[in-house]
């Protein structure tokens, strides 16, 4: 059920993992993703200089309606929040557009403030999970499928598109529009983050009744070798590779980060 609608299927669906969770990950996707480990390693190392800035962000949200970010927020785990801050700080984009807003917006604004970035924030979300209008430069309070898509054509090399929506690709849904209409039209050099992507693994068993399917569209892009983009930071894959995740040990071992989740599920790409 989505937004009160019941979807009737002709054939039963068994939403159980085929890849991971006691089974091997998808072999071809693993090969594709593992090829760029030197790139991931370089990005992770580039986040280390921001350790002091990270330590100044509180663990627990200051209170309802507060625009400041917090590491333990229930939606954006530690590695994803850290990577978002770090990517913005490294690239100093002119524009940062979110499809789906909330805690990510707070971390983005904090990076802009801390690092003196030139970045403007545009939020595309009919109903953000957190009160964030005051920290955005532009708000579009409607679903992306109802939005004038020329908004995304203005993104240039180094700009960032953060995607965290319904994660469901049906006729005229947000994920379908992103993959079929927005992603193919982005300019070379644009950075794109997809949230809740666990490739080369399936969605976890506890998500079985969510019927997410967005990451399978992304997987098709990846398996079409030499495609439209390069992978620059697959956080769930990194979380499962100790030699990669350990690069950030100096940050996670800081006492200011006690209790913070060190995993992530953001999948960063760069358009070719």
Automatic annotation (TrEMBL):
Gene3D superfamilies: Vaccinia Virus protein VP39 (3.40.50.150). SUPFAM superfamilies: S-adenosyl-L-methionine-dependent methyltransferases (SSF53335). This is Class I SAM-dependent methyltransferase.
């Amino acid at each position: 059920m989505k937004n009160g609608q019941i979807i009737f299927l002709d054939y039963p669906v068994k939403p159980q993992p085929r890849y991971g969770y006691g089974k091997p990950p998808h072999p071809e996707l693993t090969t594709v993703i593992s090829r760029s480990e030197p790139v991931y390693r370089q990005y992770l190392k580039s986040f280390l200089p921001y350790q002091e800035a990270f330590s100044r962000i509180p663990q627990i949200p200051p209170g309802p309606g507060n625009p400041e970010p917090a590491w333990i927020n229930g939606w954006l785990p530690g590695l994803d929040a850290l990577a978002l801050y770090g990517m913005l700080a490294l690239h100093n984009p002119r524009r940062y557009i979110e499809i789906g807003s909330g805690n990510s917006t707070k971390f983005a604004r904090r990076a802009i403030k801390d690092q003196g970035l030139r970045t403007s924030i545009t939020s595309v979300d009919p109903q953000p999970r957190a009160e964030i209008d005051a920290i955005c430069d532009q708000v579009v309070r409607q679903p992306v499928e109802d939005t004038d898509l020329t908004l995304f054509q203005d993104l240039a090399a180094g700009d960032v598109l953060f995607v965290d929506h319904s994660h469901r690709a049906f006729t005229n849904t947000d994920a379908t529009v992103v993959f079929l209409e927005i992603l193919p039209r982005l300019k070379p050099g644009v950075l794109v983050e997809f949230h809740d992507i666990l490739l080369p693994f399936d969605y976890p068993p506890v998500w079985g009744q969510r019927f997410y399917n967005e990451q399978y569209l992304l997987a098709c892009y990846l398996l079409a070798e030499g495609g439209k983009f390069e992978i620059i930071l697959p956080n769930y894959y990194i979380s499962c590779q100790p030699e990669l995740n350990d690069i950030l040990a100096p940050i996670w071992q800081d006492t200011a980060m006690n209790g913070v989740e060190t995993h992530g599920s953001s999948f960063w790409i760069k358009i070719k």
